[in-house]
Structures are given as C-alpha cells and as structure tokens.
Amino acid sequence: MIAFERDTSDPAFERIRGDAPLLVSMPHVGTGLPADIAARLTPQAATLADTDWHLPLVYDFVAALGATVVIATQSRYVIDLNRPPDGSSLYPGMATTGLVPAETFRGEPVWRDAPPAGEEITARRERWWRPYHEALSGELARLRAVHPRVVLWDAHSIASVLPRFFEGRLPDLNFGTADGAACEASMIEAVLSPVRAQSDYSWVLNGRYKGGHITRHHGRPRDGVHAIQLEMAQAIYMDESSPFALDEARSARLRPLLRACLGRALDWAVTG
Ligand SMILES: [Zn+2]
User: Fold this and answer.
1) N or C: which end of the chain has fewer CB within 10 A?
2) What percent of the chain is predicted at pLDDT more than 90?
3) Cα of 50 to ligand 1 centre, how many Å?
4) What CATH class is the domain 13-271?
5) What residues have their beta carbon closer than 5 A to ion ligand 1?
6) Buried (b) or exposed (e) across 78-110, using 16+ Cβ within 10 A?
C-alpha cells in the first residue's frame, strides 16, 4: 500500500494533497472533542453515535486516484461543518440538526446543561468551521488553476433507520446535487452509470438528502466546480450499534462500486 503524506498542520482537519481534479471532503468523521466540550456532553452524546464512522477506511482508494482529501478532526457536536455559518436550516419545515446540535439524531439532549449559544457558537465557528471551509476553497482553487473542471465529492454516512428524520429505512446510496444546481447533469449521469448497472444496493438521487451546505456552497458549475454529496446507509458497511465496528466483508463488497463511481467522476472531469 502506498503511504500518502497527511498534512496535520491545522488542528481542524487532516489533508492529503493530490493533483487530480477530484477533492473528497469528509466533514463528519471527526471524533475529536476539546476537553471543556467533552465534559459537557450527556452520556448518550458521548458515544458520538452520529459520527460518519470509518469513511477514510471505506474510501481508502481515493488518494491512489490522485484525489485531494480533507478530513475533519472534530466531532459534529463541536460544530457541524455541513451547516450554513448563520445556522439556518438546510431543510426548512423538516427535522434537521443545527450548526451546534442541541439534540442527537435520536432526539436525546447533547448537552448536560443549556446548549451552547451566541458568542460560544461564534468562537467555535471561527476556530473549527472556518478553517475547514477555507481548506476546501483553497484546494478547489489550486486544482482549478490546472484543471478546467473539478469534482467535489462530499462523503457522508448515517444510521439507516432514524424515525426523527425519515420513514422506514433509508436507501443504501443517497446522491445529492442540490436538485441539480451543484453540478452539470452529465457529471451525475457519469457517476450513476455504475450504480444503474448493479442491483446489490438501493439508491436515490436528490431524495431525502439533497446535499448540505458544502455541496450547495462550494458546488458552482459555472466556475468549474461540480459538487455531489453521497449519504450512505451505514448498514451497508458497518454495525450501526455501539461500538460501531467496521464490517470488513461488507465494506469490501461496497468498495468496488464506490471506486467505480469516483473513477467515473474523475474521467468526466478529465475528458468531459
Ligand atoms: Zn454526514
């Protein structure tokens, strides 16, 4: 296995730099918690059940494709990197969690006392949220300087059954392009071609999950940045109950399809 150099110079994220027109973002994989924040979590929140577990392992092939990878270090309970900086709802009228969540996905309180507010949220935004987004903007600009088109792939996963957010079981693969605003249609068609050719995994495009702030903000097809979010049901690669172990067999079965999708995205960016 090739070792890729991880840049850990900013505590908010780890970064692997590649030269291909593909940037993979993982905003919810962090499990880091500053000590003063960890001390305030309820026991339920302290399990970090809402983490997008194991995505760097599931996507272990992307650096070898030449992709640049930006990986969050801190838990989404510190601040949610895929929410707008003003804390406005991603899905008005529907249940969602905020910039600093007050409740877990299962509706339990995150904080022993009053949830963070005001200046504390502002301070967390400057300390953790801004550096992550500046890293995305900086890497996209670096890649755009040498490639006419760049794909931004925002990688997520979530428990497959969460009655607070959706009925029944989530499809395995939930692709989001902000209802088509975040990328050219030909890009998502390229990504979906291996998905359409298989029947092992259920999927949907712009269903319950259409892409969060990262997809909507950084996806600017007219500027050559084409964004897509993939929200995966965690059951297809891991055990969804604590301690949230990776399932090696299931992740090995999933990886070739992901690799095909990312490969198609990259081919699309290079050749059109
Ligand atoms: Zn996520």
Assistant:
1) N
2) 93
3) 8
4) alpha beta
5) 28, 52, 156
6) bbbbbbebeeeebeeeeeebbbbbebbbeeeeb
Ligand 1 centroid from CA 29, angstroms: 8
Selection from 74, 85, 87, 72 nearest residue 36 by Cα: 74
Tokens of 52: 């997008």
Residue 256 near residue 8, CB atoms below 8 Å: no
> What are 167's two structure tokens?
């009925």
247 with 173: CB under 8 angstroms?
no
Q: What is the pLDDT of residue 1?
A: 44
Alpha carbon distance 169, 175 (integer Å): 16
Helix (H, G, I), strand (E, B) or coil at 30: coil
CA angle 2, 233, 110 (to 5 degrees): 100
The domain locations on the chain are 13-271
pTM recorded for the entire structure: 0.97
Peptide bond into 243 cis (omega under 30): yes
Q: Kindly state the helix (H) or strand (E) to which residue 150 belongs, with its residue range.
A: strand 150-158
